[in-house]
Amino acid sequence: MIVLEKRPQPSRGWSYAAPVLAVVLTMVVGGILFAALGKNPVTVIRTIFLDPLFSEFAWFYRPQLLIKGAPLVLIAIGLSFGFRAGIWNIGAEGQYIIGALCGAGVGLAFYPMETRLVFPLMILAGAFGGWVWAMIPGVLKVKFGTNEILVSLMLVYVAESLLAAMALGPMKNPEGMGFPGSRNLAQYPSAANLELFAGTGMHWGVVFALIAVIFAYIALAKHTFGFHVRLAGQAPRAARFAGVNPGRLILICMGLSGALAGMAGLFEVAGPAGQVTIDFNVGYGFTAIIVAFLGRLHPVGILLAGGLMALTYIGGGIAQSNLGLPAAAISLLQGMLLFFLLAVDVLTHYRVRFAARKVA
Amino acid sequence: MKRRTLLATGVAAAALVATGLPALAQDKTKVGFVFVGPVGDGGWTYEHNQGRLAIEEEFGDAVETVFVESVPEGPDAVRVMQQMALDGADLIFTTSFGYMDQTMEVAAKFPDVKFEHATGFKTADNVSTYSARFYEGRAVQGHIAGNLTKSNVIGYIGSFPIPEVVRGINASFLAAKAVNPDVQFKIVWAYTWFDPAKEAEAANVLIEQGADVILQHTDSTAPQAAAQAAGNVYTFGQASDMAEYAPMPRVSSIIDNWGPYYVERTKAVMDGTWETQQVWEGIGDGMVGIGDITDAVPAEVKASAEALRDAIAAGETHPFTGPVNKQDGSVWLADGETADDGTLLGMNFYVEGIEGDIPQ
After folding, report:
1. pLDDT digits over A256-273, tens only?
2. Which domains does chain B have, with CATH numbers?
């Protein structure tokens, strides 16, 4: 009989092995799924995971990985602090939208003036917008003890409605023949978040994502703030004795994740997307939750997980167009990743023992 | 080099399938499709996919078609189009309004690839636009709806407040008003092209407000299902016939028939005669079809609706014929005057008698 026995300490080895095993399991089960769809599983898995990196057109796909991965990493880094401390900001998608709206609003307000000040101001506005949106559930939790999961999630839908209202009203392109959507910021040089080096996909969002990874690493490993965050998550009572103010920690973690999500939104709207449109948001804020957990809430892990997730999006697109795979199969594959990670995580916290059945 | 190393490994056969031998690819004309929804939506994307299949049927081995479904209208669309162009597509159909700037961007990078953008207004040397005069079908729907309603309340599920949708509302309202002066329109904006849950919710709200006929400009069959559950509520198939809900609640439909146009344009690329154009075709050209009017509609209404359809097809009747006032009471069309295409394409006002505001 198989018995699960709680480990006194989570297994270090398994906590590293779990994501890898989850990826392998996803590939295996995904392969079975693709075989059931009548495709050669080896071809499909290779197309999704290797073609973006090594195929004939890899020079085109590699930059795309950065474009797709940067917002995921930036948002996930912010979320990871809160998640470590047991503060669940599920509404990064909304903070991403509001960040984009505030940043784009600043850019559009300056149009068509050309000055170097515009873009830095937009970044600040983007971060501020995301911060404000995250402060709502944060302050409500601290003052009234509301559930931040519910409030932050519900605010996503409010943000989506605001986005639609902005794209149709105040931010609508006056030269757009009555169609919704703002001016294209990517075509307004002072506000555009273009590639820093042509053909590399490297834009300011990628730079900020990398900086965020480094800062997060230092904060968690070396700084007392990182220590407090970890302590609050692992032993809330001990944290209180150590002088951690829980309310302040909530506000800092919510604010940090909101500001980073808002910046991610700004970099997206000023560059790759270009416009404030009704369906500008495509779920980065939610996917980043998977990325954060897949990366074990560790900055370097998140960087790798963000890259992997971007890979499945881009490889998934290739598989759809070259192999005729349905879009839903790709979404399934991405969902499976988190599912298997959570399942395999049992091994981090529990030990499997084969015990003989005892007679009572 | 990369490709050679791959070929050397055990997955040689798979690599050949995925990347395609350049020599083979040259012989076939490759046609790509970028879809905004899933091909199984039963509406808009379903019909575009039927058009794709029509190309395959017409040209057989001389063409290869590829598609990617559920592509968000933003940077992902750019990537998917670019990937198709790199993979050797000769002609790419981008089948949603929201792909407009993306299509222009990619088309500029690939001057030898032809692009066809549905429902937009921007063209280039290698970008054509095409759309259907759906409003002609709306007039026939409005005629039937005005006759059928007993509560005199007709519900309308709008997708996005863009000219195309506003035009449909106006056309159906004018036709309904012509046969039933007491008719009233209730409009709900769903802010989606395809979201069964939201569409069902919108339909239920309208039914609760007393609507006994529901027109929809969204693509799923969810409103049909909601009407069926409610009982005495009539609906119309949108974009696709939705015949599975006939004879009740679906009493007729507007069918988008893209096949002939897709075949014609593919032929033009094969013959080297493709040129930029802006096409806007209606019932007369066969791009808009009126689905079978069921027996749930009284025989005399069915006859008059078919007469209206034929008159529009023959060019004898224009759905927008004066006298028509704008919502604010100002004169739009004088007695006997018909609307010009420019005004119709940018339509951003309701006609007199419709209550409420277009979201701005």
Report:
1. 999 999 999 999 999 888
2. 2-133+258-281 (3.40.50.2300), 135-255+289-345 (3.40.50.2300)
